[in-house]
Amino acid sequence: MQDDGLDTFDANTTLAFDDDERDYGIAAGMLRMLNCTRTVLLTNNRAKLYGFTKTGIEIASRMPLEAPINADNRRDVTAKAARAGHRFDDLTASLADQS
């Protein structure tokens, strides 16, 4: 569907999927088994911060995942930033350079 022009969010809606169907409870349970109740979360997705926090895992900080923005990923990364609030510092810089 994405090859046909839909972004990741429109493709999920077409397939009747929620925006994020992940269950963070399993990962939180694994962390608790390791006596870990506080972590640094590597993500650009703000919803993951909330997802882990509501499982009782404390997020000490967020570390962004950065990769170069290019013709192959620009549409997907832009959709994630615009529609879901993902944070991509490289995208912000790339868009500023185009202005």
Could you explain the architecture of this structure?
With 99 residues, this protein is mostly helical. Helix content is 45%, strand content 11%. A two-stranded parallel sheet has the order 1-2. The radius of gyration is 16 Å and the shape is globular.
Number of distinct helices: 5
How would the global form be characterised?
globular
Distance between the termini: 30 Å
Record field, number of beta strands: 2
Largest sheet: 2 strands, parallel
Question: Which series of helices and strands comes N to C?
Answer: HHEHEHH
Supply Rg: 16 Å
Beta-strand residue fraction: 5-15%
Strand order of the largest sheet: 1-2
Q: What is the mean pLDDT?
A: 83
Determine the fraction of residues in helical runs and give it as a percent range: 40-55%
Low-confidence stretches: none
Q: Label the structural class.
A: mainly alpha
